[in-house]
Design goal:
324 residues; mainly alpha; 0% strand
Length: 324
Amino acid sequence: MKRPEFSASEGTSLAGAMLAVASAGGRTPTSPQVAVIDGLAALLLSVPQTAALMPVEPADLAQSLTDSEQRHMAAQLLVLVALVDERPDERCAHAAERACRALGVHPENLDLLHEVVQRRIHRSRHHMFRRFLIDGLRTGSLSGDVIALRDLVRERHDHPDIAAPYLALESLPEDTFGNAFFQFYRNRGWRFPGEDGGLPTAYGFEVHDACHLLSGYDTTPEDEINVVAFQAGATSRLPWLVLGVNLVTFNSGLAYGPTTLLHYAPHEGNLDPGEFIRALDRGISVRRDLDADLDLHSVWQTPLDELREELGIEGARDVRVPGH
């Protein structure tokens, strides 16, 4: 996650603006909002004490934050404060939008927030699909390949040449990252890219699933929220968008994508704010950008524990087998 620096006064102003979103319209902030504001303020803004905070109006926040990167980060955090509730409040959503407008930023999760309030996912799904296409072309994961583009909109495909390198991971020693990746998939009944019913590589889920193994977060609804918080901290690619989508899917109970293809069902009420902040902190502490600075295929033969040590990841469980 790209993180701008905030001075004490700037951090306090942003923390106050988050409080203003949570208390919009005279409402009392929910316990998840309070916990997330406290955690984000300490972790990202160097504001360890929030009990004495006063709400900060959008115009005052805009006057305090003049740097473009600060404003973009602020807008994402303001939307996040509204999104963490199982059923986001319309007043919080409008307060977040007003603050974002004052900052001159339209964060990628703002449309998603309004749709969650209405309990109807539509426009933001197309936005995410477009972002995946654009980002895939930018990073070369699509490589302009017509087959890859076709596979993005098909649930079933069968390309043995694409699947072969993944299937070969089974023959690696059991302690290697590559073998663990193979077992992680097979023990859940999932198919690899190139196999009939598997995800196209352009979806970017290879990095997400690697984060499961590296962080030790399982595939339960609770851990799906935590692993994406970890991923957001440890990567620079689509972190806020994916983080928002996972909150919607596993905390607000709304289906965002093709559930059969992505092997999930929507769930409600699975956010543990303390674990969420801890997971984000663990991700931020990772020594390399797991998307931009780490070629996963080049470390298949590295022992999983050694790779975690190299990246500075501690306290990870073994999640090759679900529930262990």
